[in-house]
Amino acid sequence: MRYPDEWVRPGREELLQLGFSELKKPEEVDAHLTEKEGTTLLVVNSICGCAAGKARPGIADALAKSPKPDHLVTVFAGYDLEATARARDYLKPFPPSSPSMALLREGKLVFMLERHQIENREALQISADLQAALREYCGAGQQA
């Protein structure tokens, strides 16, 4: 089942305003997540309350306060079905989770924040975790 466009539009637009690019097809996911240069923040977006009240506000706060990744991309669980399934292939061994966020560096997964680490926490706690990852992998102190 695919969610109606009017249900996902607000959540999609929230990330687009932050500079994210939507990946709607598996081929787009492959093109972006096999990128061997730089860092990519992938957000598996969702219509759930924890995405709206915690994940997306946490992402916005972290991006305002931290070094930015080279690429910001998103898929929408329950809407971009094939693209989401392909994106989740890159996040293994982590199980499917939405919302979730992952940081890839040089095409390798280096940070993952799953739904169970989002749903019972506040946006600023999520932001702090993401900020730490962005500083480590996107900032001047990034590891080789």
Detailed description of the structure:
The chain contains 5 helices and 5 strands. Helix 2 packs parallel to helix 4. The chain is α/β, with parallel strands linked by helices and 144 residues long. The mean pLDDT is 92. The N and C termini lie far apart (42 Å). The longest helix is centred in the middle third of the chain and has 17 residues, at 49-65. The chain has helices at 5-17, 26-33, 49-65, 81-90, 123-138, and strands at residues 21-22, 39-45, 71-76, 100-105, 108-113. The relative contact order is 0.21. The radius of gyration is 14 Å and the shape is globular. Strand 4 and strand 5 form a beta hairpin. The chain has a 5-stranded mixed beta sheet with strand order 1-3-2-4-5, with helices on both faces.
Please estimate the helix content.
Answer: 40-55%
Low-confidence segments, given as residue ranges, are none
Radius of gyration: 14 Å
- Average per-residue pLDDT, rounded, comes to 92
